[in-house]
Amino acid sequence: MARLLLSKATLSAQRRQLAAYRRFLPSLEMKRQQLMVTVKQCQQTIARQQAELQRIRDKVQRDYPMLANDRIDLHSLARVEQVVTRRVNIVGVWVEKIEQVRLACAPISILTRPHWTDGLQALLKQALTLESERRQQQQIADVLQQELVKVTQRVNLFDKVLIPQTLKNIRKIQIYLDDKDREAVITSKIAKSKRQADNTPQSAGPAL
User: Among 61, 64, 118, 198, which is least packed by CB within 10 angstroms?
Assistant: First the structure.
């Protein structure tokens, strides 16, 4: 750590630094608050998506007990073909957000597939789209959470380290300079008194 120079120039530099820290800290704190709110909103969205996925699973189990038969091939009913995303800026953080989930769905033939496959296919399409969106939302939440950690660390650095240390430095320099000023005043008074004493005429001695 560099040695602190106890001078007026250093005092002026420390005061400028303190002013800069205090200007920057509110914007950092605001970003931290925005990130906290956004991360919470992402988590709430993910929770809703998970609840909806569970609802679809429950419906499939309830309405399609025949799926327990392993001989029924349903893999070709629906699958994710492509997930189209675009970069968006959320609270100053660039993330990938889903624009479209493209599904490949097999045509349903009345002659070759059971009558209930159309309803099941619709549920599978919902589930596949929702699961893709949930995964992407989780990725966004993870990126924002990482940024929140970084911003929180910076807020703590300014609030708990840099600003207190700079205030301490300012006090230390100010005390030193005040002591030097007092010392200079006292030295000046002593010198003045000495000069006055030296210039005072000596009284004549008794005549012989």
Answer: 198
